Amino acid sequence: MNPDCYHIPVMLDECLEGLNIKPDGIYIDLTYGGGGHSKEIVKRLNAQGHLYGFDQDLDAMEGAIKDERFTFVRSNFRFIKNWMQYYSIEKVDGILADLGVSSHHLDEGERGFSFRYDAPLDMRMNQAGKITAKQIIAEYSEEQLADIFYYYGELKQSRKIASKIVKHRSTTEITTTGQLAELVTPLLGFGREKKDMSKLFQALRIEVNGEMKVLREMLDNATDLLAPKGRLVIMTYHSLEDRIVKNHMKGTDKKNKDSANNQALIFGQTKTPLKQINKNVTTASDAEIAENPRSRSAKLRIAEKS
Ligand SMILES: C[S@@+](CC[C@H](N)C(=O)[O-])C[C@H]1O[C@@H](n2cnc3c(N)ncnc32)[C@H](O)[C@@H]1O
C-alpha cells in the first residue's frame, strides 16, 4: 500500500490552525488513517513535543510514521484515557478527530464498505470487531433495521427496505454487498440510486462500528484529558454526528439534561468547560471540494477548554 494514496487530509490547514500547535505540546490524533493530519502535526513539534496517533485499523498501523515524536496506538479511541494513563500523560494540549472511514477503506473492496465492489458484507473498521454487516442484515428485526436506515441513513424508504430484506432473507441468505444492492435498488429514489445506496451503506457501517455511542464516550474522555486552553478539533461527515459534537461543545447533550447526572444544570445546560471558538461550523472551500469531493460533507468544530 502506498500511504500517499491512502487519503487526502480534509481541511488540513483549518485543523492545524484549530489545534494551535505549541512545538513542545502533547497532542492526540484520534483517527490516524493514512496519517495525513498527523504528519503535518509532527512537523510542527520540537524534540519535547509528542503526538499520539490512534486508529483501530490494522492497515493504518502498518503505514504509521516512524518518528521519535510519534507513538501509534492501535485501539478504539474510546479508550484514550486508559492509554494516556498507560503513557503517564495527565493532560494534553490538543485532540483531533476526523471521523468515519478513510478513502482507503472505501477503495479496499473486500472490506465491504462500498457498494462499488461485490464483497462479503463486513464493514468492520477493527478487523477483530464482533459484529459484521452480514450478521445485522441476517439477525436484526425488521423494526431495528428500519430504525438504522432511518436514523443513520436518513432514508425515507427505510421501512420498505427493511421489509424487503426480511422477506428475502427468509428464503435466501444475504451475504454480499452485491446481493444487498441488487435487492434494494428498485426501492431507491429514481436518479438518486447512488446517493441513497451510499446512505444505506453508511447506516450499516455506523451500526457495525457503534459509531454514535463511541463518539459520545470519546467526547467526554477527550474533554477531561485537555489541559486549560487545550483544543478539541472534531470533523464529522454526518448530520447526527455533527449534532452530537455541537451539543457536547455547548453543554446541551441530552444526557446532561438528566437531573440524575451530578453536573450543575443551568436551564437544561451543563456548565461545560468547553467553548466553541469557530463561528457555527467550518466547511471546506470550493477549491478543496473540487479537488477532493469527500470534503463536501465535512463539518469542523473547534473548542477550547477554559
Ligand atoms: C477519515 S479517516 C482519517 C484520515 C486521516 N485524518 C488522514 O488524513 O489520513 C478515519 C480513520 O479513523 C479510524 N477510526 C474511526 N473510528 C475509530 C475509532 N472509534 N477508534 C479508532 N479509530 C477509528 C478509521 O479506521 C479511519 O482510519
Descriptive account of the structure:
A hairpin with a 2-residue loop joins strand 6 (265-266) and strand 7. Helix 7 packs antiparallel against helix 8, helix 7 (142-152) packs across helix 10 and helix 11 packs parallel to helix 12. The protein is of the alpha/beta class. It has two domains: 3-103 and 211-305, Vaccinia Virus protein VP39 (Rossmann fold, 3-Layer(aba) Sandwich), CATH 3.40.50.150; 127-208, DNA polymerase, domain 1 (Orthogonal Bundle). The chain contains 13 helices and nine strands. The protein starts with 11 loop residues before the first helix and ends with a strand. The protein has a seven-stranded mixed beta sheet with strand order 3-2-1-4-5-9-8, sandwiched between helices. It binds S-adenosylmethionine. The site of S-adenosylmethionine has 22 residues, from helix 2 and strand 2.
Keywords:
binds S-adenosylmethionine; DNA polymerase, domain 1; disordered N terminus; 2 domains; 306 residues; alpha/beta; Rossmann fold; 7-stranded mixed sheet; globular; two-stranded antiparallel sheet
Uncertain regions spanning at least 5 consecutive residues: 1-5, 256-266
Number of separate helices? 13
Our measurement of the CA-to-CA distance between the termini, rounded to an integer number of angstroms, reads: 42 Å
Given helix and strand content, the structural type is alpha/beta
Sketch the major β-sheet.
7 strands, mixed
CATH architecture of the largest domain: 3-Layer(aba) Sandwich
Beta-strand percent range:
15-25%
Rg estimate, integer Å: 20 Å
CATH topology of the largest domain: Rossmann fold
Write the H/E string, N to C: HEHEHEHEHHHHHHHEHEEEHE
- Mean pLDDT across every amino acid position: 92
Share in helix: 25-40%
